[in-house]
Design a protein that fits this description.
Two copies of one chain form a homodimer. Chain A has 289 residues and is an all-alpha fold. The first copy, chain A, is built from 15 helices and two strands. The first copy, chain A, has a single domain, classed as Farnesyl Diphosphate Synthase (Orthogonal Bundle). At the A-B interface, helix 2, helix 6, helix 7 and helix 8 of A face helix 2, helix 6, helix 7 and helix 8 of B.
Chain lengths: 289, 289
């Protein structure tokens, strides 16, 4: 997808607004550490691509929305990695935030990033306030309760977990926010964009499961095979590698087919195909053969 | 101050929106537990009083703003109580959230309440979007970095703590959001209301220090004398009880004097005095004599 440099610079501006006079230095450093360098930035790139598809490429509103979605994603990674949940030592090829700093700072970094995400869109939409209420609603639905990331994560604290709901909340919801938020930032009707977010989110989750089983630690930026080690329910455990890859391909086809008629429809369909190749490169799939 | 029933019912509506289909049941129960029954609800009552002072009593926008401020306050209590910070066993006369549920749920409850606070104002301001950007900015400044609650809390992770900054961020900032947010919700200029929030926040902090030293566990709803046990820097340690009470009284006088000319000015000055008596009742002060 597109707009990578715009996203990085929007994230830099947002982080710099925290890393300012009065901020305790370790917190400031840890906020920056949690956001840079990033991963694939797939959610914000998706958001920007939809805004462009809706006729507003490179719009400051879309870029701010994209950056806020990424800040919310980073917040969820920092809190998921904490000792009481995954106790992850490594993230993006280096120590997780609570390992590099400490648990207290990691707790506060997650909180600060959630708050920053809403501050960032509020600032950007000051001149287009009509678009702000629905945008904030879309973001909050994606990360809060009852249907967002926090709810998804809380299923890990129950005796039994409804798998589909768990995945939809923990992964799908923020992908939906990326497509819906992209449309809303462009002043477009978000409804036709939900399915694209939903199917891409599910495809991403399956690709993640497949990569966890087939890729190396270094390729992943964290220990591979962790799902199997933790006995997590994954698409692989259900379908096997070949079945999971087939399911991934059918989701990508559905995602591409769901793209509504709009100025950038053709361009978006190509992007979905490119993204699919990036998620599951042929070189990786050969290992499954 | 006023509007207590409106605040409780707005909090109930907000919490019920989490406690909905799809929410993991333990998370839903813990969110409710963190918000009800509440403490004095001093911040949301202050917010409502300012909106009334600005000519919009009982406005749904003010009530929503007040409820969101209380949700942010509850979130900060839940995260501050966690084992990595205060490891508080008791809050509001019963087990803290992580004791009643567990640490993972308490982490997620704090996250969910922060998100809910922004969702709640976004929903309420859908028909008055012009007022939303500045309101969200005021709320986020009060709770995030570099100058809000999260930053204040992060000073506890540094080798040395600038006391005034620490208190202003950890306590003062949300009081400022209460007065500024009350004015913004009413479409009024927030600038003249900052000093009232600042001075009341400082007075509240000092009253809290005095109560911690003089009140019983039951009156406080948590163990008394905790500041001294933890060797925390307080107004008492600096000024002694009599000096702290004097400082409290001078802050209350400054707060009352700061109230700008507005339809409800006289009423607000009376409320500040009543609140001062509630914060430090004569019966408590007799113990210091």
């Amino acid at each position: 997808m597109e707009g990578a440099s715009g996203i990085e610079s929007a994230l830099e501006t947002a982080v710099a607004s925290c890393d300012a006079l009065g901020c305790p230095p370790r917190l400031a450093a840890a906020i920056r550490y949690a956001v840079f360098p990033g991963g694939a930035r797939i959610r914000p790139r998706l958001c920007l691509a939809i805004a462009a598809g809706c006729g507003e490429p490179e719009s400051p509103l879309a870029i701010a929305t994209a950056a806020s979605i990424e800040l919310l994603h980073c917040a969820s990674l920092v809190h998921d990695d904490l000792p009481c949940f995954d106790d992850a030592e490594v993230r993006r090829n280096r120590p997780s935030v609570h390992r590099a700093f400490d648990e207290r700072i990691a707790l506060l970094v997650g909180d600060a990033l959630i708050v920053l995400a809403f501050q960032n869109v509020a600032r950007a939409f000051a001149q287009s306030p009509d678009r702000l209420p629905n945008l904030v609603l879309a973001l909050t639905r994606a990360v809060g309760a009852p249907g967002g990331i926090v709810a998804g994560q809380a299923w890990e604290c129950e005796d039994s977990t409804p798998l589909e709901e768990y995945r939809r909340q923990k992964t799908g919801a923020l992908f939906i926010a990326a497509t819906v938020g992209g449309a809303l930032s462009a002043g477009a009707d978000p409804t036709p964009w939900r399915v694209l977010g939903e199917t891409l989110g599910e495809a991403y989750q399956i690709a993640d499961d497949i990569r966890d089983a087939l890729a190396t630690d270094e390729e992943l930026g964290k220990p591979a095979g962790r799902d199997a080690d933790l006995g997590r329910p994954t698409a692989l455990a259900e379908l096997g590698v070949q079945g999971a890859v087939k399911h991934f391909e059918s989701l990508i086809a559905r995602a591409a087919a769901s793209i509504p008629e709009c100025p950038g429809a053709e361009f978006l369909r190509e992007l979905v195909d490119l993204e699919a190749q990036r998620l599951l490169p042929a070189s990786l799939l050969q290992r499954a053969a």
